[in-house]
Amino acid sequence: KSRLGEDMYAGSKPAVVLVTQGPAAALKVHREMLVRRPNDAAHLWAATWLAAALGDQPLFDHYRAALHALGGDAQLLVAAVDRVLDARAGKLPAGSAELAAVFDDPNIDNLWRGIVGFAAGDVTHGASAWRAMSMTERRVLVGGGLDYLQLMFAPGVAEDARFRAVLDDLDLGTSWRRHIADHGAQLAKELGLAHEEVEPVIAAL
User: How far apart are CA 190 and CA 176, in angstroms?
Assistant: First the structure.
């Protein structure tokens, strides 16, 4: 299956940075970590994803190639990312046979079916896929994973009542951001972040 690791970003510095400082700052953190761990699949995926969300084609190509070179499940992740990019580019429009083929692909789990659906703007089928996720798939969304994934959703999806209802059903609505807001000072200290930089954002969460 084309799946991310469980709890990839739960409580991690990049996840907190993404929420408090944005995708460009989070990408910088992942790139710094990749200097020390160049074959870390989690950080390679995150760098690939964030570069795509930021529209940085050279960085995207670099990290996509590095992730693909790991082989195995990493190549399935690359294929899933490519489908998301196809959806964002309008190649998998809602209601199309092409998008239906993605939902029927046995190599794609419900997590990624939902992601592709949301990237295509198909909230109905995306929500249905996420409601059918296993507990292992759901754990990917905990602790900041959802904030990464939403960067590639079609405009308006994150605000759609059907999408918010799914998050509430999965108890993912605001729990992670609330955790950052409640424990911002402690997280900043533990992760080596300057609290004065993140405090205004934390206060607004």
Answer: 17
